Amino acid sequence: MVMYRRLDPLANANEYQRLTKSPVKSFTITEPQYDRVKEHRSGLIAREGEYSVVARPYADYLEINYAFPDVATFRERFNDLFNGATGASSKAEAPRGLIIPFRDRPNRALAQMIFWNLALDEGKEWVEMNQVAVPEQPEPENTLEGGFTVRAATIEDMGIVAEIEAEVSGQPRLSEGGVLSVFDNARWLRIVSDASGTPVGFVAAHSEPAGWAVIDMMAIRESVRDQLRELFLRWTMGFLRNNGGRRQRRILYMENAADLACLRSAGFTPGETGVDYYRAVDPEEIRSKIEERQGHGTLIKFGDWR
Questions:
Q1: In 10 A of CB 100, how many CB atoms?
Q2: What predicted TM-score, i.e. pTM, was given to this entire model?
Q3: CA separation, residue 100 to residues 59, 109, 130, 173, 277 (Å)
Q4: Count of domains in the chain?
Q5: Dihedral, CA atoms, 260, 233, 34, 212, nearest 10 degrees?
Q6: Within this chain, do residues 220 and 286 fall inside the same structural domain, yes or no?
Q7: How far apart are CA 198 and CA 183, in angstroms?
Q8: Is 36 in a helix, a strand, or coil?
Q9: pLDDT tens sequence across 161-203
Q10: What does the alpha-carbon distance between residue 30 and residue 27 come to, in Å, rounded to a whole number?
């Protein structure tokens, strides 16, 4: 008698690959990023069986990713795993707070109630801008129109990156650990300087499978932003295309109209959308906010992002 059994398509998958296939997730951390957290800050991974909450320190934020096998498990276990992962961090490691780049659209209503009870606030909406077939082109020169030059960043440029990022973001200057995380995460980190040699911007990007290059940060000082925005984007596209990035992506907030228009003119099109959720890391701030919200009952909200 012939016996049949169902084959497990993930039988040989590692723990990261299994998490990426979870039905209920907001999980975009890359495998190298996951492995880096596991190696250096394993306490930031709260895992039970086939589900997990992962906290990744990046640019003075604690970025939360999660993956669960079903809605019931998400509802029952998210709080404990979230508190376990975030409890292993501190305000010193994430002075800008905690962030969930939320993309679990089918389960948003449930997630909002859970996040509300955990003192998370809804933030800005964002969109992934993609170009899935960047044309072949010559490797760009390291000089741009207007006397600008581009060079590879070194560890001695940490102060420059922190200074420009703070000016552009309007946030406090990155801590030493925060700016180091930008360097560690980037496969490519380039500084652009004006004709006098003064650094006026930088771009940080990493690679992902299937030929993707993802622009994590592109920061340009306000004094030259309008002049340099398209020039630097075109240079970055050409550089990434010649270094394996035949597909490219940049995530922008919906309110960033000028950069969105620039990406559209360069051939990028909108893809997945989402919204950020924020919270402080300091235990006293969290406790106070949770108590305040418990006094107001449960969040009921309707609607969706664009």
A1: 25
A2: 0.89
A3: 14, 15, 21, 21, 5
A4: 2
A5: 90
A6: no
A7: 20
A8: helix
A9: 999 999 999 999 999 999 999 999 999 999 999 999 999 999 9
A10: 9
